[in-house]
Design brief:
Strand content: 5-15%
Largest sheet: 4 strands, antiparallel
Order of helices and strands: HEEHHEEHEHEEHHHHH
Radius of gyration: 22 Å
Helix content: 40-55%
Structural class: alpha/beta
Oligomer: single chain
Number of helices: 10
Number of strands: 7
Strand order of the largest sheet: 1-2-4-3
Shape: flat
Distance between the termini: 33 Å
């Protein structure tokens, strides 16, 4: 179950509470679900009860209790706990993790996280003659296209197109030409910082060390490919099984990250490329922590746990490859 699917499940619980007369509110268009913050438990948390408390005229904890009763029996959910002022913390069936890893491996980098939810939508990005704005617009167009929409990029000097939804793309400009860094490092230098931050155009983006976030992402991808090759040499293959946190929630959250670019009318849509880049860093760090226990050591024989970790690592590599592709950055199998 992806965060998008879980969001629909949460909205379904709200709808059932409204239909039963327990809540008198308009059902919102979306429910935000994300990994729990400090003090949270489970796999995901949502603040939907706090969001609905004021319009419902009820305390957040009361709204949370009502929604919990409708969520606990939903498919794929094994438990719901309430923490803090009314956060709903959701535990997912472990079989859901197995199914997710299998889904990622089946769909591959070019399809996992992609959807047709915006088919028929046309958006216009208006971009100044500035390298960072052009790169950010290119990635926004790729991310929105991954959800089925079509994007046109226009120079801001042209007359505004009033026939389609339009977004002016104006991140803080690059302080200098990033071309000497090469295409991949240049794009990362422009995309990884928030659009309100000034990018650093330095040779640090070329150094192969942990402090270079681009290197960590590409290295993690290459290591996932290498570990699958090494496992084949040892005579065993990936087999999805019980998946381990914290990597699983990050893989589950990837489709939601892609949807943050659309609709382009949202004020924070321009930050979607930076969110994607930072999400890939989190995936890379988690998979690098997983890899040491993926292959048998010494005379140890491959077990179901090794096969499951190998499948999880391969799925992570798939997400890293797909995300880098949307950023317009190469994901080499050897580094």
């Amino acid at each position: 179950m992806t965060p998008v699917e879980l969001s629909r499940t949460v909205l379904g619980a709200v709808r059932r509470a409204v239909d039963a007369g327990e809540l008198r509110v308009d059902v919102p268009e979306r429910a935000v679900v994300a990994p729990p913050g400090p003090g949270g438990v489970g796999d995901y948390a949502t603040n939907i009860a706090l969001q609905l408390a004021r319009p419902a005229g009820q305390p957040p904890l009361r709204v949370a209790e009502l929604l919990r009763s409708h969520l606990v029996h939903a498919d794929g959910i094994t438990g719901v706990e309430i923490t803090g002022p009314g956060f709903l913390n959701i535990r997912l069936d472990q079989n859901v993790g197995t199914a997710l890893v299998r889904r990622i491996l089946d769909e591959g980098a070019a399809r996992y996280g992609h959807s047709d939810t915006l088919v028929g939508q046309v958006y216009v990005l208006r971009v100044p003659y500035e390298v960072r704005a052009e790169v950010v617009a290119d990635v926004l167009a790729r991310m929105v296209a991954s959800q089925g929409a079509r994007v046109e990029i226009q120079q801001q000097e042209l007359q505004k197109d009033d026939t389609h939804e339009t977004l002016d793309v104006r991140p803080v400009p690059a302080p200098q030409d990033p071309a000497p860094l090469g295409p991949d490092a240049a794009r990362w230098a422009l995309l990884h910082p928030a659009p309100s931050d000034r990018p650093r155009i330095t040779a640090d983006h070329l150094v192969q060390r942990e402090g270079n976030s681009l290197f960590r992402v590409r290295y993690a991808h290459a290591r996932t490919r290498a570990v699958v090759r090494n496992a084949a040499d040892l005579g065993f293959a990936p087999e999805p099984g019980a998946a381990e946190p914290p990597l699983l929630p990050l893989l589950t959250d990837y489709p939601r990250i892609l949807t943050t670019a659309a609709p382009l009318t949202r004020p924070d849509a321009i930050a979607a490329p930076a969110r994607l880049a930072r999400h890939l860093v989190a995936v890379a760090d988690a998979v690098l922590d997983l890899l040491p226990g993926t292959l048998p050591r010494g005379d140890e024989k491959p077990t179901a746990a090794h096969r499951a970790r190998l499948a999880l690592a391969e799925a992570a590599g798939t997400v890293l490859a797909g995300g880098l592709s949307l950023l317009g950055i190469d994901a080499p199998d050897h580094l």
